[in-house]
Specification:
- The protein is of the alpha+beta class and 670 residues long.
- The chain has 24 helices and 22 strands.
- The chain has a five-stranded antiparallel sheet with strand order 18-17-16-11-22. Strands 15-14-13-12-21 form a five-stranded antiparallel sheet. Strands 7-8-9-10 form a four-stranded mixed sheet, covered by helices on one side.
- Strand 12 and strand 13 form a beta hairpin.
- Helix 1 packs parallel to helix 20, helix 2 packs across helix 3 and helix 7 runs antiparallel to helix 8.
Length: 670
């Protein structure tokens, strides 16, 4: 006969993780089946492969220039500042093949999510048994746990992180998973210390500090403190036997982290920002370091961080798909703080309201002076989880991913709060409305994370993914989207999510709301020119197109041998494509297409074939990036001097832009 309590646990767990898992995986794969998906054309999606390859070569330093602006140049070699645990996970694959280099981030983040949900599930059911004093589960309690697991597995900033499979977000996927795992095994050690529990605690502490140092230090120091307490208060045989093992579980990972960081940066845990490539090329970073005493950490950033990550207004509701977004603008610096960088950032309170409410409830109950012993033991891991957030609360760089620091604390507090509500309201009339509210809040969190995850993934990917996102928006909210469309000849001004049509649908742009790249290209009409012979060919060059605001130019060259070729020139030199003669058709065509997903113009010709690529964005000295359209610089007189004529051709139609423009004009005329 089936145990009804076991059956309820299985159904509750399966339902909660299925709902959360669907949302998380939809975000991770950006509603696709691409297991090798990368972020921003692969930029910084293969960083851990670089580190793993360096390990296989017997060194820690990565190839010079491979980390771009994120590299730290010390003693003539380049280091990455990210700890190595995710790189070590890749070694079994990289030791056998190069095929998956740069393509393992999605799978790594999926594995991190599996570890996270396993630990979270074990945590909440362990807490249920401890608080209730038995493993019996009522239908209402099973419902609450299922709601909690859905919110935890699909309704936290870990799901937002899944939107961009690159190093910055993979760090948080593993940091969250390893921290929650360490908190679970810390509870097991505190309540029933044994060597099995100690080994798992040490393993998760090693993973945590090997992924994100701030989280690992908080956990390891807590474990060392627990070991010291056990050593002083040897009140049970288990404590007397295991205190030194607990000490090693915290001290060994901490020592390895210190030694690794000393080797790279000559510091116990910090990394010298003055040695980072970004610092060398960015004047604002250098100014931020100077103003803040050589670092971008300190309590001067706490008011800004509190407002950015915890204030309940840190969310935005709109009347167009996906209806829930990050705040329209980056957080403003408060209390005179001089911040390094700030991006649009969501609040943990606003985006995870159920877990935040349960965290507040569990804190009040657990830290109540007269709390029973079975609850007082929860104080230590709750304090450790809060300490994990200390790094971002005193850090002068603000981004939505940093709200992930609060996920372990909210998951632990949420699990405790879920069990407490189920225990104290079981069989009471108030239980049902509380369960309904919890379900609604969990559904909101899941929907909110999916909304910002899909929009972030689409905007970062650009190209077909961004066009697909706008098609979804048009299908779901056509009228509201039409109100976002504006017409202008430039990209001056603008508001967040605005869709700007330039010219006669020559280009369509989206306003991102961020300071450093306020506009991104959705579509840009291709450009083309047809070249015909016009007399005798004579050696010389004819400029055809130039990237606006730069020296990058596409030219036609007639060589001394009276052959033709296309040449790309710029500040870094020039590149000449294959030479050719006029084909029997009597003309040659040059085509330039903006491959927005890569950020380059793809340039090809008939009959000579591929010509090359030029950047379709421009970055100024302050590292503000903007679209860089093509401008026609061809001259009939210059063409005649080399014996050719030029005819500009119409680029292909852009159906999406034309449909949006038509909808906006219809709305304006109604």
């Amino acid at each position: 006969m089936t145990d009804p309590d076991h059956q309820r646990r299985v159904i509750s767990t399966s339902a909660g993780l299925t709902i959360g898992g669907i949302i998380h995986l939809l975000t991770l794969f950006n509603v696709s089946r691409d297991l090798g998906r990368t972020a921003a054309s692969g930029f910084f999606s293969g960083v851990y492969e670089l580190q793993a390859r360096a390990f296989l070569d017997g060194r820690i330093a990565v190839p010079d220039g491979s980390m771009a602006i994120e590299g730290f140049i010390r003693h003539g070699v380049t280091y990455m500042y990210f700890p190595p645990f995710p790189a070590l996970l890749r070694l079994p694959v990289l030791m056998t093949t190069h095929e998956f280099d740069g393509k393992l981030t999605v799978l790594s983040m999926a594995l991190a999510w599996i570890v996270f949900v396993v630990c979270t599930t074990k945590l909440v059911w362990w807490l249920h048994a401890r608080v209730n004093g038995s493993t019996q589960v009522s239908r209402g309690q099973a419902w609450l746990v299922g709601v909690f697991l859905a919110a935890a597995s699909g309704g936290t900033f870990m799901t937002y992180d899944a939107s961009l499979p690159w190093v910055y977000h993979e760090v948080y996927a593993w940091a969250i998973a390893s921290t929650v795992g360490a908190l679970y095994w810390l509870l097991r050690v505190l309540t029933a210390p044994g060597w099995h529990e100690v080994r798992w605690l040490g393993a998760f502490c090693l993973a945590a500090i090997g992924t994100r140092a701030t989280a690992g230090w908080a956990l390891c120091l807590t474990v060392v403190a627990v070991a010291a307490w056990f050593a002083v208060r040897r009140t049970t045989p288990e404590r007397r036997r295991t205190w030194w093992g607990i000490l090693l579980a915290g001290a060994i990972p901490l020592t390895l982290s210190i030694l690794y960081n000393l080797h790279k940066f000559d510091h116990v845990y910090m990394f010298p920002l003055q040695d980072q490539v970004w610092t060398q090329v960015n004047a604002h970073r250098r100014e931020a370091l100077e103003v803040n005493g050589g670092a971008i950490t300190g309590l001067q950033f706490f008011p800004t961080a509190f407002h950015a990550y915890l204030w309940p207004t840190g969310i935005r509701f709109v009347d167009y798909f996906p209806w829930i977004t990050l705040p329209a603008r980056p957080p403003e610096a408060l209390a005179g703080a001089f911040v390094d960088q700030a991006y649009r950032t969501g609040s943990a309170t606003a985006f995870m309201p159920l877990l935040m409410a349960l965290q507040v409830l569990s804190t009040l109950v657990v830290f109540w002076p007269r709390a029973p012993q079975r609850l007082r033991v929860l104080r230590v891991p709750m304090v450790a989880a809060v300490l994990v957030t200390g790094g971002v609360m005193a850090y002068g760089y603000f981004a939505a991913r940093y709200a992930s620091e609060f996920v372990p604390a909210l998951v632990l507090g949420g699990a405790i709060g879920t069990v407490l509500v189920g225990h104290h309201l079981r069989g009471r009339r108030l239980f049902r409305p509380v369960a309904v509210v919890a379900t609604v809040l969990a559904a909101f969190s899941v929907a909110a994370q999916l909304a910002i995850g899909i929009s972030t993934a689409s905007v970062a990917a650009r190209g077909p993914d961004l066009e697909r996102y706008l098609e979804w928006q048009r299908a779901a909210t056509p009228t509201a989207q039409a109100r976002l469309v504006t017409f202008a000849d430039s990209l001056d001004g603008g508001r967040t999510d605005e869709l700007r049509v330039v010219g006669d649908c020559d280009a369509l742009y989206l306003n991102t709301g961020d300071e450093y790249e306020p506009w991104t290209t959705v579509q840009a009409r291709g450009r083309a020119v047809r070249i015909r012979p016009d007399g005798r060919l004579r050696p010389g060059r004819v400029p055809l197109f130039r990237i606006e605001g730069s020296q990058d130019t596409v030219l036609l060259e007639v060589t001394d041998e009276r052959e033709l070729r296309f040449v790309l020139t710029g500040p870094d030199g020039e590149y000449g494509a294959n030479t050719f003669d006029f084909p029997p058709s009597g003309y040659a065509d040059l085509n330039l297409r903006n491959q927005t997903q890569f950020g380059f113009y793809e340039i090809s010709a008939m009959p000579s074939g591929p010509v090359g690529f030029l950047r379709s964005t421009a970055t100024d000295d302050d590292w503000y990036t903007r679209p860089a359209p093509l401008e026609w610089v061809g001259s009939a007189a210059a063409a005649a001097r080399v014996g050719v004529s030029l005819e500009q051709l119409e680029g292909l139609d852009m159906p999406l832009c034309e449909e949006l423009a038509g909808a906006a004009r219809t709305l304006a005329g109604s």
